[in-house]
Every structure is written in C-alpha cells, then in structure tokens.
TrEMBL record:
<dbReference type="InterPro" id="IPR036291">
    <property type="entry name" value="NAD(P)-bd_dom_sf"/>
</dbReference>
<feature type="domain" description="Glycerol-3-phosphate dehydrogenase NAD-dependent N-terminal">
    <location>
        <begin position="15"/>
        <end position="176"/>
    </location>
</feature>
<feature type="binding site">
    <location>
        <begin position="272"/>
        <end position="273"/>
    </location>
    <ligand>
        <name>substrate</name>
    </ligand>
</feature>
<dbReference type="Pfam" id="PF01210">
    <property type="entry name" value="NAD_Gly3P_dh_N"/>
</dbReference>
<dbReference type="GO" id="GO:0005975">
    <property type="term" value="P:carbohydrate metabolic process"/>
</dbReference>
<feature type="binding site">
    <location>
        <begin position="19"/>
        <end position="24"/>
    </location>
    <ligand>
        <name>NAD(+)</name>
    </ligand>
</feature>
<dbReference type="Pfam" id="PF07479">
    <property type="entry name" value="NAD_Gly3P_dh_C"/>
</dbReference>
<dbReference type="InterPro" id="IPR008927">
    <property type="entry name" value="6-PGluconate_DH-like_C_sf"/>
</dbReference>
<keyword id="KW-0560">Oxidoreductase</keyword>
<protein>
    <recommendedName>
        <fullName>Glycerol-3-phosphate dehydrogenase [NAD(+)]</fullName>
        <ecNumber>1.1.1.8</ecNumber>
    </recommendedName>
</protein>
<dbReference type="GO" id="GO:0051287">
    <property type="term" value="F:NAD binding"/>
</dbReference>
<comment type="similarity">
    <text>Belongs to the NAD-dependent glycerol-3-phosphate dehydrogenase family.</text>
</comment>
<feature type="domain" description="Glycerol-3-phosphate dehydrogenase NAD-dependent C-terminal">
    <location>
        <begin position="197"/>
        <end position="338"/>
    </location>
</feature>
<dbReference type="InterPro" id="IPR011128">
    <property type="entry name" value="G3P_DH_NAD-dep_N"/>
</dbReference>
<feature type="binding site">
    <location>
        <position position="122"/>
    </location>
    <ligand>
        <name>substrate</name>
    </ligand>
</feature>
<dbReference type="GO" id="GO:0046168">
    <property type="term" value="P:glycerol-3-phosphate catabolic process"/>
</dbReference>
<feature type="binding site">
    <location>
        <position position="272"/>
    </location>
    <ligand>
        <name>NAD(+)</name>
    </ligand>
</feature>
Length: 374
C-alpha cells in the first residue's frame, strides 16, 4: 500500500549519521525521505564515492536506491566546524567499537551545547560489561548521557527500506529529548513511542540478540514451534530478571523493545543473530559463520557480557548460560539443549530484589540515587 509522499513532520533538520551499514544507511534513507538534510559518515572511502554518484550502498542493502537528500562523507571524521550547525547526531556503530569511536569524535563536539544524540546499537561492551549509557558517560560525560536518546524495537533495516509499517520505542532520561527524537523519526510507516527507561530499553535490545541465537539453534536442530515458543517465553523471563537487577522496569519488557523485538528476531532468518544460531544448530562452526555473515551479529559478543553480569548479579539465566557455552566454550548445541531440558521444575518468574554491581556502577557515574526497594 503506498503512503502519501509528504506527511506532516518536524521542520527540516541537519542530521549526521555515523555508520553506513544496514541500519545506519536505512535510517539515513528514512530521514532523507522525510525531507531532512542527512550526512552519512562511512569509514569506507569507496562506499562514500559510490554512494554520492549512484545513491546506492555498495556494501549493504544493495538492492535499494537511497534518498537523494542523503550525502555520504568520510573516512575522516567531521571537525568541530562542520558539526556546529547540526541538529542531530545519530550513531549506528556496533557496540564493541563505540567507545573508541566516541573518544575520537569528542574533540569535534562542544559538550556544553550538544545536538540531539541518538543511539541505535544493541549490545553490551565485552571488556567492561557496560551499556551504551555508561560508554557515553565515560567518553562524553554524565550530562551528555542523560540527554542521549536510545531507539530500539522490532525493526529490520530491509523492511524499513521497503516502508513496511514498523514501530519503535524511543527512550531517554530526558523526556524532552525522547520527544524531540520521536518527532524527527515519526512517520506513518515508522511509528515512535516514547519512554523514560533507557536502561531497560538498552538491555532489551542487547539481550534479545542472545535469545535469538538460542531460538535459531533450536530451529537448526530441527525442533519445532512449541520449542521456539518455550525459548522465547523463558528468554523473556530471563531478560526481565536481568533488567530488574539493573534497576530497569519489568514493564519495558512488555513493550516494543522487549517482547516485540524478541519475537521478531527469534522467528525470522532475516535476523543475523537467529541465523548464527540456526547455522550452529545445523553443525557449522562459529568462525565460519562470522566470516560469511557479512554484517554484525551483536549477540555473539554480548553473550560474554551477559555471562559476567548474571554471575555477578547471581541471576538464574540457564538459556543465556548455554548460549555462552556453545559460542565461547566449544560445547555443541545439542548438548546445551539436553542440559536445559534436564533442569528440575522451578518457579516461573522470580524477580530479584536490589541491584547488582554493574547497575550500581552505572547509577553512580550518572550521579543518580538508587530508588529504595521495599
Ligand atoms: N540491521 C538492523 O536491522 C538493525 C540493527 N541494529 C543495531 O544497529 C547496530 C549497527 O547494525 P548494522 O548497521 O545492522 O550493522 P552492519 O554490520 O550492517 O554495519 C555496521 C557499520 O558500522 C561500521 N563500523 C563497524 N565497526 C566500526 C567501528 N569500530 N568504528 C566505526 N564504524 C564501525 C561498519 O563499517 C558499518 O558501516 C548494531 O548494534 C545492531 O544491533 C538495530 C536495529 C535494527
Ligand atoms: O535488531 C534487529 C531488528 O530489530 C536486527 O536483528 P539482527 O541484528 O539479529 O539482524
């Protein structure tokens, strides 16, 4: 069904998108199509020149012609002068590279007068087990982190490019910033819902990738619908426990970024994380899968961060543990499933009381008092 070419929107904004992979270039196209002026940074010089000549991305989403309102630049990072008049900086760089990227960009940013900062990556940093909120705090300061906005939810890049109706959650500690980001992105085919739980939203996006690997493994081993539904639901229970121990709201997990994205990525081979699991279940080796995937599957590295977090927070998350054992300890997918099936009966959902060390570390850095627990 065609959408009206012009829909009511916010005034034209000057937007810089960092990262020109599947999601960065897809969102650049969406914003360009919404009549904003978009400058998309890439670290690949050839991608930049090809994109500016042909309006096509040489390496990702190859079948699509992009909005002419998007101009590519790079590989040099922009200087302070070229960022001065920009309204929005959108970061679509994978989590493991984000800290170094922000450190390099920092000299070009005026941290006393920042544009709207929006992050769409879904992962946990391996070396520190930090969420993006903490990476921003460490690199750009607590004020920048508190003003940052995070977008997550069930949103495959390729489907957004084809204007399939899609909804996302837009969360920030600042309601004003979440609303401003939603106003810029919202369109009939890209509906935005705002929220004030960025920790929950970030954890939902990062964790669902680990459970999508589990669902893919199950399908790859030949299990059917009941088993996938069990994994999705038990995965949601584990995710909610981990997030509650991080001080996030369990209700966030009933939303688009939680069950919405979990359901999407656990049930479609369009998901890179599901595909990693599927191929592991079919007997392929992880290095071969990574080398031929052509794009990032954040769940592979996030599983390491999750393992550490659940150990330190003493959370019972057997599926996350088994995904880790297959990805990083060389166990077979079928052995992992056997171990899960042999677990004794247990309570369906027990939310932890009090928060663990990573949550306390993040809140301390942000200068936020932990809310008292009953
Ligand atoms: N593809 C999708 O449908 C969605 C992806 N996401 C998230 O967005 C993030 C980016 O994903 P995709 O664009 O799909 O990945 P991708 O693998 O397609 O592209 C990654 C982009 O980041 C660049 N990059 C990688 N490492 C970098 C570094 N260290 N410094 C600077 N640039 C670097 C690459 O050159 C490439 O342009 C991930 O966290 C992913 O989970 C979120 C929602 C949907
Ligand atoms: O997060 C996504 C869609 O919402 C994309 O999932 P994958 O990274 O598994 O492809």
């Amino acid at each position: 069904m065609p959408f009206p070419a012009k829909t009511p929107g916010t005034p034209k904004a000057q937007v810089v998108v960092f990262g020109s992979g599947n999601f960065g270039s897809c969102l650049a196209d969406h914003l360009g199509d919404s009549q904003h002026d978009v400058y998309m940074w890439s670290r690949q010089a050839q991608l930049v020149s090809h994109f500016n000549l042909h309006h096509r991305n040489k390496s990702y989403l190859k079948g699509h012609v992009f909005s002419t309102n998007v101009k590519a630049f790079g590989p040099e990072l922009p200087d302070a002068d070229s960022l001065r008049n920009k309204d929005v900086l959108l970061f679509a760089v994978p989590t493991q590279g984000l800290r170094e990227f922000l450190e390099k960009l920092r000299p070009s940013l005026n941290c006393d007068n920042l544009p709207l900062l929006i992050f769409v990556n879904k992962g946990i940093e391996i070396s520190t087990h930090a969420l993006t909120l903490e990476i921003i705090t460490d690199t750009l300061g607590a004020d920048a982190a508190k003003a940052s906005t995070f977008i997550s939810g069930p949103s495959f890049a390729d489907e957004i490019m084809r204007r399939q109706p899609t909804s996302v959650s837009v969360a920030s500690l600042s309601h004003e910033k979440a609303q401003a980001a939603a106003d810029i992105f919202h369109k009939p085919w890209f509906r935005c819902y705002t929220g004030n739980d960025p920790i929950g939203l970030e954890l939902a996006g990062a964790l669902k990738n680990v459970y999508a690997i589990a669902a893919g493994m199950s399908d790859g081993l030949g299990f059917e619908n009941n088993t996938r539904a069990m994994l999705i639901t038990r995965g949601l229970s584990e995710m909610t426990c981990i997030a509650t121990a991080y001080g996030a709201s369990p209700l966030t997990f009933l939303g688009l970024a939680g069950v919405g994205d979990l359901f999407l990525t656990c049930s479609s081979p369009t998901s890179r994380n599901y595909t990693v699991g599927l191929r592991l279940g079919q007997g392929e080796k992880l290095p071969d899968i990574i080398n031929t995937l052509g794009s990032v599957a954040e769940g592979v590295s996030t599983a390491k961060g999750v393992k550490k977090i659940i150990e330190e927070m003493k959370i019972d998350a057997p599926i996350a543990n088994e995904v880790y054992s297959v990805l990083h300890e060389g166990h077979s997918a079928s052995d992992a499933v056997q171990r899960l099936l042999l677990l004794p009966p247990s309570r369906e959902l027990v939310l932890p009381k009090g928060s663990g060390p990573y949550a306390q570390r993040l809140l301390r850095k942000l200068g936020i008092e932990e809310s008292p627990k009953e």
